Amino acid sequence: MSKVIDYAEVQKHKSKESCWVILYGNVWDVTDFLPNHPGGANIILKLAGKDATEEYDPIHPPGTLEDNLPESARIGPINPQTLPEPVKAAKDVGPEPDSQIELPLGALLNLNEVEAAGKKKMSKKGWAYYYSAADDLASKHFNNSVYRQILLRPRVFVDCRDCDLSTTFLGHKLEIPIFVSPAAMARLAHPDGEWGIAQACKKFGTIQMISNNASMTPEQIVKDAGPGQVFGWQLYVQTERKKSEDMLGRINKLDAIKFICLTLDAPVPGKREEDERSKYVVEDTSQAIKDAGGAELKGGGGIGQSLFFGTDPTLTWTETLPWLKKHTNKPIILKGLQCHEDAYLASHHTDQVKGIILSNHGGRAADTAPPAIHTLLEIRKYCPEVLTKLDVVVDGGIKRGTDVVKALALGAKAVGIGRGALFGLAAGGIEGVERVLEILRDETATAARLLGVPKMSDLSPLHINTRAVERDIYDGPANLPGIEGAMKGLWVKAKL
Amino acid sequence: MSKVIDYAEVQKHKSKESCWVILYGNVWDVTDFLPNHPGGANIILKLAGKDATEEYDPIHPPGTLEDNLPESARIGPINPQTLPEPVKAAKDVGPEPDSQIELPLGALLNLNEVEAAGKKKMSKKGWAYYYSAADDLASKHFNNSVYRQILLRPRVFVDCRDCDLSTTFLGHKLEIPIFVSPAAMARLAHPDGEWGIAQACKKFGTIQMISNNASMTPEQIVKDAGPGQVFGWQLYVQTERKKSEDMLGRINKLDAIKFICLTLDAPVPGKREEDERSKYVVEDTSQAIKDAGGAELKGGGGIGQSLFFGTDPTLTWTETLPWLKKHTNKPIILKGLQCHEDAYLASHHTDQVKGIILSNHGGRAADTAPPAIHTLLEIRKYCPEVLTKLDVVVDGGIKRGTDVVKALALGAKAVGIGRGALFGLAAGGIEGVERVLEILRDETATAARLLGVPKMSDLSPLHINTRAVERDIYDGPANLPGIEGAMKGLWVKAKL
Amino acid sequence: MSKVIDYAEVQKHKSKESCWVILYGNVWDVTDFLPNHPGGANIILKLAGKDATEEYDPIHPPGTLEDNLPESARIGPINPQTLPEPVKAAKDVGPEPDSQIELPLGALLNLNEVEAAGKKKMSKKGWAYYYSAADDLASKHFNNSVYRQILLRPRVFVDCRDCDLSTTFLGHKLEIPIFVSPAAMARLAHPDGEWGIAQACKKFGTIQMISNNASMTPEQIVKDAGPGQVFGWQLYVQTERKKSEDMLGRINKLDAIKFICLTLDAPVPGKREEDERSKYVVEDTSQAIKDAGGAELKGGGGIGQSLFFGTDPTLTWTETLPWLKKHTNKPIILKGLQCHEDAYLASHHTDQVKGIILSNHGGRAADTAPPAIHTLLEIRKYCPEVLTKLDVVVDGGIKRGTDVVKALALGAKAVGIGRGALFGLAAGGIEGVERVLEILRDETATAARLLGVPKMSDLSPLHINTRAVERDIYDGPANLPGIEGAMKGLWVKAKL
Amino acid sequence: MSKVIDYAEVQKHKSKESCWVILYGNVWDVTDFLPNHPGGANIILKLAGKDATEEYDPIHPPGTLEDNLPESARIGPINPQTLPEPVKAAKDVGPEPDSQIELPLGALLNLNEVEAAGKKKMSKKGWAYYYSAADDLASKHFNNSVYRQILLRPRVFVDCRDCDLSTTFLGHKLEIPIFVSPAAMARLAHPDGEWGIAQACKKFGTIQMISNNASMTPEQIVKDAGPGQVFGWQLYVQTERKKSEDMLGRINKLDAIKFICLTLDAPVPGKREEDERSKYVVEDTSQAIKDAGGAELKGGGGIGQSLFFGTDPTLTWTETLPWLKKHTNKPIILKGLQCHEDAYLASHHTDQVKGIILSNHGGRAADTAPPAIHTLLEIRKYCPEVLTKLDVVVDGGIKRGTDVVKALALGAKAVGIGRGALFGLAAGGIEGVERVLEILRDETATAARLLGVPKMSDLSPLHINTRAVERDIYDGPANLPGIEGAMKGLWVKAKL
Hints:
CATH architecture of the largest domain in chain A: Alpha-Beta Barrel
CATH superfamily of the largest domain in chain A: Aldolase class I
Oligomer: homotetramer
Strand content of chain A: 5-15%
Organism (chains A, B, C, D): Exophiala viscosa
Subcellular location (chains A, B, C, D): Mitochondrion intermembrane space
CATH topology of the largest domain in chain A: TIM Barrel
Pfam family, one (chains A, B, C, D): Cyt-b5
Number of strands of chain A: 15
Largest interface: A-D, 85 and 68 residues
Mean pLDDT of chain A: 88
Domain FMN hydroxy acid dehydrogenase (chains A, B, C, D): 103-469
Radius of gyration of chain A: 28 Å
Distance between the termini of chain A: 92 Å
Structural class of chain A: alpha/beta
Low-confidence stretches of chain A: 87-95, 281-286, 295-300, 484-496
Largest sheet of chain A: 8 strands, parallel
Strand order of the largest sheet of chain A: 7-14-13-12-11-10-9-8
Protein name (chains A, B, C, D): L-lactate dehydrogenase (cytochrome)
Helix content of chain A: 25-40%
């Protein structure tokens, strides 16, 4: 029979190397069990050297101890006289945690929490630039809420032990169906900037599209690219075409950049009031401008307006695409298509146009523009062949793994995140971006497995119920200027 | 003529045995009338020995007194000089009742109030485990709000003096159409745990389905089963099949357990952030883990995650059902079907599968999964024969008797409650669970009688207006993998 | 030329008999103009004897003075030295008006303000009884919001100088299309009780339906009836039929009561938690009941429950109607029909049943029962002949004159108010009820004239857009028990 | 090599004439660059004479400086010893800006902010008159929110360097598709009154419709009209026709007034409670009226009620139009049509009726009247020929440039603003109105260019998705009194 143990002796065994706990009056050595505990080792380590009965009891049925530990693990009975006063119940542990305390990245459970953590670390001006969207933020909010309108249709009795999250885009493999959309000025969030985002993408095996307005040069961003790491480069065509041509010359020399992403959804800047207002908040309380002879500012003009300086608003199918093809041999993708007609037109330029991004520019261009999901449903309804001719991806509003599987179920090859990556960068640099990708990866895998879908290509419209969205989709005539006979309900193929 | 009475004399008659009150200047002996008072005896007893005129007058028309009491009950006129100062009007009685004061169970009028009372008595951790649901709680909330979208169609001129609430499930009679769904870890709420729930179910003549993750053993839970009391036992198949087989061996020996409930809607754990967060709230403010050499926790993992350890995510129609049939002769019900296709497939295994539970796991698995009412309406629309081949029940979101009659009107045999029973247990142990069942029983009877429905089997879709829900039901092609020709609007029977 | 006037002289003319004001430096005698002022006389009287320029100027174009007053009204220029300091601008007049101050009845602009004023004057218990409705108040709120879902279609170029608000019910003329529905316990609001409501109805030429649970006897209520004043009497049939028969005997003798209103929508009491809770608030904080030997109260039971004691829940078409006809020769109307089928059945008893009230009992019976507007639209869709065979009226949720015209446009002869009258009574006795009827009368006239409708019988479905409501109307098969072949979309006439 | 510069020297160059900044340790002369800075000159001037590195760095990629400034602009390295303590980061600059501080007009970014600024400067009474609308403000709010229900359909690859915002109305050219609707009592906002609005309209090349209840005479308002400036004059026909005829006589003589706008949507005043309540707030706290012998006020009656005095509610197609034609030769437009039937009827009087304004009087007449967009969609659906026979414009609820392009896409020639102009006037007199027009002009241009629309006449229903609104449009029979056979779904042409 085992001898009685003093509490002081138990207190000596509080590490991974030797871990004792008291349960129901007995001392147990749980060192070997630590890696097998369903609830994880840490929850035991926290109670190491103490009486764990109060925490253990209500969540373990009788017999659990005996089923999982050999009798040899029982060191012996505790000497009750040596025990300290009982620990208070969990509900009495203390006040609510201080919301000012900075949580570790691992404690940020979803993209909203990452955004909140990032906001605390940023300048008001930087936050305003990232957060802002056009006018009343209607499209920004709709981008997200439209996913809430779609219901999942989980299937049972499907083996989903493994879930392969990989997908492809332009022939490149992505380990996860989530890429980073071009988003400007990453160094407003963190000194690691776009280079930092690249490191996180490398780790997660996915694509980063570099903003034309990156706060670092493309060369800096790709300099530590891993083998096989894929980048795209976003182009805002400049009115001074020479500037764009020079830039394309630099890009053409960078092997890691595999394609050019031509942005079309913002020929002129949208009105981002939060961004414009930050100008007033930060600057105009001073007398400085007047002293310097400057005129009164009118109508704001934050960072967003500044970045558009020089952007060419005259792009056309007939002029711009041939010009671009002349200056690069890399595949081209078109970003910012917002109706099925433009997707249909794009599908007639597959000599060099290989993909499209359905996007309303994160709600930052035309407010009340449709979310990408609307455009995707339009394409499915009126010209589904586009989905086979081009690689179609979407961005805007993605916050959950369920959003990802919904977009893929409708035919998207992958989804892009913009603000998500930037707020991750703000919250914790490279590790912050990694945390964002990790959250979305895990949520996507969980969503897919709960749907009974073992790999991304198995997702189909059968897995979701889009009825609430479909009744809001455009159902007027197709808008193909110059094409005769376009009628409601009758798709007329354009001659191109 | 009767003599004048002093107030001191009236004050002596303040009990059930002798109860006098003063009304309009006369003293009345209402002892015999107490059991017949429409408003109940207590309301009179409260005023016993006092002048009740101010409370009595505005709610009784003249003549009421004379109609209900014999003249002999009139003792005589009160002596006005002996009366104390008048009691203040009800509205002046005092401050709002203190919300911190614990109300008696009888004063909890609905399930929301029971939940609030239970929350006050629980640890934060336990509450978080019960309350939590997947991601943004969209499905959890939709489970309830979908009932609000359905309107009742009350009929008049129907004799509903009696209302028979009984129903059947798998041939067993239930006194009320409300059973307790499998829900884990009841001892987080109260030491009586699952055994306590069993005692309440016994009293109300209904079924308890015992969670695979109960905090007590099945033997403990059923040990005080009444004659004819029916239990089910929920199975999460373990990767180590031997463990499940041993458990089934134990269950097979328990006569009170009449069927096995195989859970299918959570092959992997959903992401329950409230639960995961509680881990940080309660634990990580200490330095303990780091001191013990533990790594930083990532992504939470509350009680919910722990319980899933060892659960097998590879179940299939072809492998798992035959295996299960080999290890038990008890009838099987499948829990967690969320689309009509799976219900249809289940209806082809009626050799041992006798029922199904339409459930999205209380919103705790895939967020934005449909509420059971959606699945039930899908079945009615596309494969109504399922309702005759199998006993179909639903759970998730039930808070009112009107919810119960709506589910039954659509063909459900009964409805399950999970959190409701647990919060009842937290609020008051066995009596708390009884109060929950009592509330739902009384509300269900009231709803049925107001509909003009004297017994549960009379409920039909004619009694409700589901139009607002029906327009959101899935209307794409049936998803029966391997079946040719599945088309929208045309149900193709699968060959099985 | 007129002489200069001193301010002291002007100050002497501040009454209706002699009213001077200063405008733009001149003193004007506006006594004769007072009754013609578009803005009313009072607004001038308030400024009588003072310099009114600051208030007058911004809302009168130049020339207004000269156009409206004869030169003889100009007394002469003011002596500026005699003027006091200028009055402050309106926006500086002082603090916000104190919300605690009791407003005069005339300052209560709509039914919500009357309700708020009434609430302040009532006991908590009385307010809870009036305010309460079943369960979650879903039907109570829907009763009102459904009117917001209907749009008006105003017509232009219609002469609507006169607007005749009169209507008829059972052959009786109502001066306004708004009657008082049976509502219990008016003396909880004010000592004038139901008699007080009768006085207001007399003044406005409309019908009062007396509640079976009135806090005064029918004889008291009708005792001051005007010539031609019309009452109805509501019957809750008692299980002890003799009691109802005796009561009918009394009613039959009262000539002013022209019809019997048989209530059918509350065979058992709904669950009115606000009412039941008030019992605890007011009573259970005392030790009295326990001291008196009373048991613990369970599940509340407020005033509402008490009133139902003895009500017969076994009424049927075949038994109850013949019984009632035997005991009265007065016309019968049926209250509480909530689906078109019951309205259809009622239209086959026109020998003595002359009208129906579409009502869900003010949301106080079955929660999520449909608003009367739903039932009315069902009738229009499936059995419009009911509207010609019976006089159909509605109640529940009426708060605005636009609500009144919408109900009438759909075929209702009139609309009833219940709580509105009671809260008016609470706010100001007879004058309070009058104010409620006055508000609704004026709003109804305004709505009708803005629609281009000079009399109530001109209102038709062409004047409103009900499309948003129609898509929620029940569209399943008709529910006529015992009738063969009832099918969705095909109305099958019942043989009766 | 350049010499080291002291901070004191840099400090001398802080003006447009000579502007130096320190970047990365070097002093640069950016005077010549000021006009070319994409972010505007002011943002540099603010930092003139200081170290700008902290603000500059995160938003400019490396190389930007070298690309944009010649080497000659580099004055030399700063002497670090002479630098003051570093400026704090933007996020630390100080507290939130004081919401009480009056912002410059240029800092007001949208119409809501202009309204808020205007409110602060107005009397409560004036604000209440402008802000108020009928009953519960349902139509007022719906007027705006209906635009949010419409989605844009932006097109890509369209040259939109130039965007021509001009439109026409009755043959007159408007530089912007936004005019000022007739709105009364502008001097409640600002002493410049309607004349001030006229000056802003002159500057922006658009039409002002002068209210019949303007606080200035028409002669005053138009007296500084520019060459070609166009005014309309709104007529409320008076019961004393002579008064209207005299007024028309004056209007006929004013050449700048090009048309008469006959108001039809308010034959009687709506119930504007905010306006009526302001009467009590400002006035009735005094004892003055009672002292003067005035009766108690009943039912309010604010400015709105006053203005309607004398208005004729008996207008008809057959009497009023001929009368009006007799008294003016100017073209007539009809204001306040709210259903397609009346628009259809109007299109049969094109001898002198040249246009219509779809309007519900800013929500100030019949509450729950439809927004103009409903009426416009009705016209498109049932009688689209009206759009070619008449110039159709809309008002009510316009707050954004996207609202403007949506109305124009559906066929409106222009849109009117009422409250917007008045609140602009309140916020800053003439400049305030200009700011409102400037905001809407710029937003409209941005919206059009983002749609890929280079001129207003290119806008068509193809550019918007109105599906969510269309399902709420009236679809009952046409309401043409006296016309036989009007049926749902079949438009029957009226014989006129």
